[in-house]
């Protein structure tokens, strides 16, 4: 019940295209859903996050869509650029200072020129 | 703001020795820090939750006597890999959650440990 399923495992998108990564969860107690971006040999960095009281959040070219009834959320990267090539992890957690984060399995995105 | 550092960034040690990794929150205080291990092309695996001034909470299957965690201050947590073996070689990442923040955590740049 603590799992977060993420797909696809890898994704190749042409420059200027839209990258879409999907995640699904089971635990209805989760109330915070961040996305992290990780470059090789580096730690993850928070990209964008959403709470279940909204269905969509947009920051620049990055948008999270959230479907509470389906227990699914997705990351859309508009106008994908080669610099977006990285591994993306969705995550979920229950609010609280000591609460741990459950990570998805990751999606390796490659944006080709 | 919200910068977390790790030291060292890379370390090579011989089998049987111990190695200490430091995790510091540079511009904020953190009651809670987390230690992760990441294998190549895999997701982050939580090892333990480190709480300032108290014992760490280890995830199932993580040997607490092998991976010693100390969180002595609100800006520093350390992970000591004791009697390291080649199978302990991995990428270790810490994260820190700011005081009074129920959600965000900020990650360090990671430490690459190689045990020969």
Q: Could you characterize the architecture of this molecule?
A:
The complex is a heterodimer of chains A (113) and B (116). With 113 residues, chain A is mainly β. Chain A contains no helices and eleven strands. In chain A, the strands form two sheets. In chain A, strands 2, 4, 5, 9, 10 and 11 form a six-stranded mixed β-sheet that branches. A five-stranded antiparallel β-sheet of chain A has the order 1-3-8-7-6, with no helix packed on it. Chain B has 116 residues and is mainly β. Chain B has no helices and eleven strands. In chain B, the strands form two sheets. In chain B, strands 2, 4, 5, 6, 9, 10 and 11 form a seven-stranded mixed β-sheet that branches. Chain B is globular and about 40 Å long. The mean pLDDT of chain B is 94.
Considering the chains and any ligands shown, give keywords for the structure.
heterodimer, A: 113 residues, mainly beta, globular, B: mainly beta, 7-stranded mixed beta sheet, 11 strands
Shape of chain A: globular
Oligomeric state of shown chains: heterodimer
Q: Evaluate the radius of gyration of chain A.
A: 13 Å
Q: Name the helix and strand elements of chain B from N-terminus to C-terminus, one letter apiece.
A: EEEEEEEEEEE
**What does the radius of gyration of chain B come to?**
13 Å
Number of helices of chain B: 0
Measured between the Cα atoms of the first and last residue of chain B, the distance is 37 Å
């Amino acid at each position: 019940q603590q799992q977060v399923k993420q797909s696809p495992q890898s994704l190749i998108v042409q420059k200027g295209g839209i990258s879409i990564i999907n995640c699904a969860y089971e635990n209805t107690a989760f109330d915070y859903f961040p996305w992290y971006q990780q470059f090789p040999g580096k730690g993850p960095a928070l990209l964008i996050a959403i709470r279940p009281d909204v269905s969509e959040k947009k920051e620049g070219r990055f948008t999270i869509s959230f479907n509470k009834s389906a227990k699914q959320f997705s990351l859309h990267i508009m106008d994908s650029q080669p610099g977006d090539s990285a591994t993306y992890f969705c995550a979920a957690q229950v609010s609280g200072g000591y609460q741990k984060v459950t990570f998805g399995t990751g999606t390796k995105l490659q944006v080709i020129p | 703001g919200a910068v977390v550092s790790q030291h060292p960034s890379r370390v090579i040690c011989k089998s049987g020795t111990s190695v200490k990794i430091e995790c510091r929150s540079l511009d904020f205080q953190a009651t809670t820090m987390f230690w992760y291990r990441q294998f190549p092309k895999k997701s982050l695996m939580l090892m333990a939750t480190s709480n300032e001034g108290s014992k760490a909470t280890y995830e199932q299957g993580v040997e607490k006597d092998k991976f010693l965690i100390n969180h002595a201050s609100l800006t520093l947590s350390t992970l000591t890999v004791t009697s390291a073996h080649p199978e302990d070689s991995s990428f270790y990442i810490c994260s820190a959650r700011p005081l009074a923040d129920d959600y965000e955590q900020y990650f360090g740049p990671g430490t690459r440990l190689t045990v020969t």
